[in-house]
Amino acid sequence: MLFPYKFIDHNINHLQTWIDFLFVNIWCKADKNVEYNIELFDKCKELQEIVRKEEYKTDPSVRQVDYITGPIREIYEEFQKLSTQQKNQLKRWYKRSNDLEKICNNQKLYNPISKNILRKYSPDLAKKIYKFYVNLYEKGLDLAVIKNQNGNLEKHYKEFVKINTNGICPFCGIDTIRSYEMNGHEAYDHFLPKENYPLYAINFKNLVPTCHDCNSTYKTRDIPIVSKNKKNKRKAFYPYSENQINLKLRLQVNIVDYKFYEHANIGIEFITDSEKDKIKTWKETYNIESRYKDYLTNESKGKYWLVNYMDEMSAAMRNMELTELPNRLKKNPFRGDNFLKVPFLLACDEIGLFP
Asked: How many domains in the chain?
């Protein structure tokens, strides 16, 4: 990852707060002697109101799908079947597992709760939790009872890109993301995939606007915090970290004809003082090295940069441009492809490609 996003304060985030209350204060306290009832929500009036307004959908004669009230009750009844020890264990684990930054840092005792872990407590519980959380993301966010007071993904996205103004995907740096003036929004990638980690399906610290290639072509359903062979945990960049990412690119090129060269003529070194493990994860997850080489050999990108320097500039102008490149990289690394363009052109200059 080239740079972290800034997490934004938005009404849609309240939904996660309410779901945290539901898990910790209602489900994990489900008493087998206490029937599910609306009074259980007394200490979270906003969620109580949503549940109350959606309650009519539990009537089989109503031809609307119940994504909220019925599923919440069913999960409560599954928790009633667990022992007190199991419920307390899940409550402690859940509270720790909400710290996604510590999970990405592979910090001891901080592990996400997966669907497979829930199955060990109860297969039926795992199934119902998965269905509830995924439906809440895919269907529930568009329910009027939620949308009217919390907004929806499109409204969140428009506010998001007004704060996060780089205009490019932070996972690759080479594809743009649409602005607030466009209709629709970029896909929100579940950094921890909802298929494996349903409890994070509506956690906006796990939801990351991502370009199409990064989301749908390369990452797909990969789990960044788990190695490709699924056997080992590993570190990954937390997309909303408040710390800037310490990364520089150094390129080596072997180019004789600036109009005809391939991937094999380019080497890329990813330089960091402290984040080698995370950079390795990032490179593997998003196929970064091959994509950068492809960008640098593209006729409209890397090859045109060389055509521009070789055929369209005078020697004096080219020398002035080369002198200015390091300053541009320092001032605006993520504008005009500078993070990749500058080290590439300097590497070409170093081998004497420019006359």
From this structure: 2
